[in-house]
Specification:
By secondary structure, this protein is α+β, with helices and mostly antiparallel strands. Helices cover 36% and strands 24% of the residues.
Length: 154
């Protein structure tokens, strides 16, 4: 498993009437190298969608959850982990990348993410983030304490 997929860049796309969004070719090669490969679309913590390579989802995201379950120490922690699993599962969807490089996003996920006619698709190292333009702009403009990034040099 790769430590980093190297997903970078930004593209603006229209969402078609069937809820399909294009994945940029360079991102598609990493997320779904073969035609009709599957990806996992999940609701992100900032009101956006995250798109993962299926193998990364299983080998990293789900494995992290399994490791937490295996190391649970008491019922309270068990319940919290189970709630997190249910929230993650109910807000995720498996999609196939079609021959045109599009993913079909269910209407309920588009609605939760505030995505209607346009979407911003951003490579975010190990995933692709899909944003409603207004949410993305507001999130980027937010002044936060970014001191945790002091070790990141560009």
């Amino acid at each position: 498993m790769l430590k980093s997929f190297g997903l970078t860049g930004r593209n603006d796309y229209k969402v078609d009437a069937k809820g399909r969004i294009n994945l940029p070719p360079r991102m598609r090669k990493i997320l779904a190298p073969e035609t009709y490969d599957e990806v996992v679309i999940s609701m992100g913590s900032k009101g956006h969608l995250s798109v993962f390579n299926k193998d990364y989802w299983v080998g990293t995201i789900q494995q992290n959850i399994i490791d937490q379950v295996d190391n649970v120490e008491n019922q309270e922690n068990w319940d919290a982990i189970q709630r997190a699993i249910h929230r993650l599962s109910e807000n995720s969807h498996m999609s196939t990348v079609d021959s045109q490089g599009r993913i079909n996003v269910p209407g309920w996920l588009l609605e939760k993410a505030g995505i209607t006619k346009e979407a911003i698709v951003v490579g975010a190292v190990d995933r692709v983030s899909v944003w409603a333009p207004e949410r993305y702009g507001a999130w980027l403009d937010k002044e936060e304490d970014d001191s945790s990034l002091t070790g990141i040099y560009i």
